[in-house]
């Protein structure tokens, strides 16, 4: 029993304990997130779902180190998270690419900024540009790319930087349906290959069921975690499958009952 | 290539119509205060190479043009050397902004030409006043656009840099400067344009050489064809200098949809 506990604790890459975040908006205090508890194991694909105002993005941004909790503890491998760092890569909905750098230089930005040797930067860049299928566009600038291609660059630059946890804040929300489906499939392929830990924020139930090992359901006013469930459907998952549909109904109900 | 030819044809249409109008309304008149274009052309040739009138002005153009170009680029470079670091400091450091921005904004509405009498007192009658006015004319466009560029960097890019492992001390070089480059560039271009505008006023302060100087001198001698020749040369030099800066910008800012 004791052994089992140590083993499972050692596998917890992220520990979030009693995290509350309060903002002040026009002098009015707003509770964005209240008493959130969450542990994430290495290699897990966790989706955070909930309507706007449920604190899912706030939680993600605190894990990234962009914001600090008002109360509670956030730690990675046991060490408190305080500032942003390359071990936690973020993929933004609006990409956040550097417009003055080519696709290749964007992907190699992290390793280059951290002083890796040139040959290594180039090899890493090539590997991840190839991985996201942008080999032909390595020299293009962000403004020449479609939204889906920009998001591929954003994913590749986080992977190239050896992030252990990939934080994704509604990354496919601004893309058209077909591009979104392609990127979801590619993301799963990459995740299965690299076994990275992924925290994926979305408000789309279907997207969460398609991707996640585990779905954390959140509700607003104040933002809280209201459910945390495993999805054990085998991959690749089929949205037309009756079991998929049953899950869709289940998470719909979970989301609906807390409004 | 045909597209280029068409663009060139269209660009030349307006000047050609203007030249024709100018010619028709001045040529052959026994008494015209404005000389016809052909006469100006002949004067321009004489100014540049001599051999037509062989007077005091013949073949003096290179000397005057060089003097003006030197002042324009000298004043411009000095303005850039001061306005760029100052603009970055004002844009990035709150203390410097509180300290200097109000004063600079208060001085900004004063037209460069209004500084002329004061410049003559401080720097004396001569090329140093002209240099100062050019500097002042180029300074503010560069400063204002640099501040704007440095201050309007998309906040998302700071987050992206931080999560990729850029240290706070490297953020300026890795993010702020490249992101501000299009604005800075616009400032440099405006500043150089303004330097050419101000040079004529600057060279009215009793300097011996320079395009502004011969324009003023020729005006007093009623040599209107020299006045117009000087104007044409300033126009051409300003145009070439802007084309040069733009070419540089297209190289440096290939990534920017507004410039590339």
UniProtKB/TrEMBL annotation, chain A:
CDD domains: ABC_NrtD_SsuB_transporters. Gene3D superfamilies: P-loop containing nucleotide triphosphate hydrolases. It holds the Pfam family ABC_tran. This is ABC transporter ATP-binding protein. Belongs to the ABC transporter superfamily. Keywords: ATP-binding, Nucleotide-binding, Transport. Signal peptide: none annotated. Residues 14-245 form the ABC transporter domain. GO terms for molecular function: ATP binding.
TrEMBL record, chain B:
Belongs to the binding-protein-dependent transport system permease family. Its main location: membrane. InterPro entries: MetI-like (IPR000515), MetI-like_sf (IPR035906). Signal peptide: none annotated. It comes from Sabulicella glaciei. Keywords: Cell membrane, Membrane, Transmembrane, Transmembrane helix, Transport. It holds the Pfam family BPD_transp_1. It is a multi-pass membrane protein. The chain crosses the membrane at residues 72-94, 106-125, 131-150, 157-181, 193-214, 226-248. It comes from the Bacteria. It is found in: Cell membrane. Gene3D superfamilies: MetI-like (1.10.3720.10). Residues 65-245 form the ABC transmembrane type-1 domain. PROSITE patterns: ABC_TM1. This is ABC transporter permease.
